Amino acid sequence: MKSNPVVGVLALQGDVREHLIALAVADATAREVRRPEELAEVDGLVVPGGESTTISKLATLFGLLEPLRERIADGMPVYGTCAGMILLADKILDPRSGQETLGGIDMIVRRNAFGRQNESFETTVHVDGVEDGPVEGVFIRAPWVESVGAEVEVLAEHGGHIVAVRQKNALATSFHPELTGDHRVHAMFVDMVRAAS
User: What is the Cα–Cα distance from 164 to 173, expressed in whole angstroms?
Assistant: First the structure.
């Protein structure tokens, strides 16, 4: 078990810097990942928020799509926030034309389910596995999970909708914990990476 695992942040688009900071606070060695050789050097990976269609197209352009799918299928710990959750879904409702996913979580996700940019909000969320009370969740054009398979653990709900899930080494949240200064969700993920490495 590595005390300081190397955790990458997929640095194609989105709030990469905030995730790097949160991972460092959680005692991981955090690195940006843009190329297959950089992906090969990490013990776990965060797929950040941004625009899921753009991220999937850039992953294809950078030759990362298949290597990402292979590493996730092989059990590399991965954590997706917002757009990252969409990318980790095995199925998307109403996908955009040409939109690809990485897969890894047996769930169906609805894009932009909580509304447009101007309907963004912040609220407290009780997340199973995170100690010392609820976390602040920032929801920005956030998806929600419509349904999950038998192996998926539901970790949090908001307004009757699933907003955090885990399946084996894959974790996903609809919201952005990296934007709040509360790094407990990242600490939980880093513990998952430690346990797997």
Answer: 4
Q: Say how far apart CA 17 and CA 153 lie, in whole Å.
A: 28
- Global pTM? 0.95
**Which segments of the chain have a pLDDT < 50?**
none
Q: Which amino acid would we find at residue 58?
A: L
Identify whether 126 is a catalytic site residue: no
82 a catalytic residue: yes
Question: What are the tokens at 128?
Answer: 């199973």
Whether 141 and 110 have beta carbons less than 8 Å apart is answered as no
pLDDT for the residue 114: 80
- Please name the amino acid found at residue 174: S
CB 44 within 8 A of CB 76: yes
DSSP class per residue in 14-78: S-HHHHHHHHHHTT-EEEEE-SHHHHTT-SEEEE-SS-HHHHHHHHHHTT-HHHHHHHHHTT--E
Q: Which of 60, 113, 57, 66 is nearest to 85 (CA)?
A: 113
User: Which one from 18, 19, 82, 186 is the annotated catalytic residue?
Assistant: 82
pLDDT of residue 130: 96
Task: State yes or no: is 176 an active-site residue.
Answer: yes
Q: What's residue 17's pLDDT?
A: 96
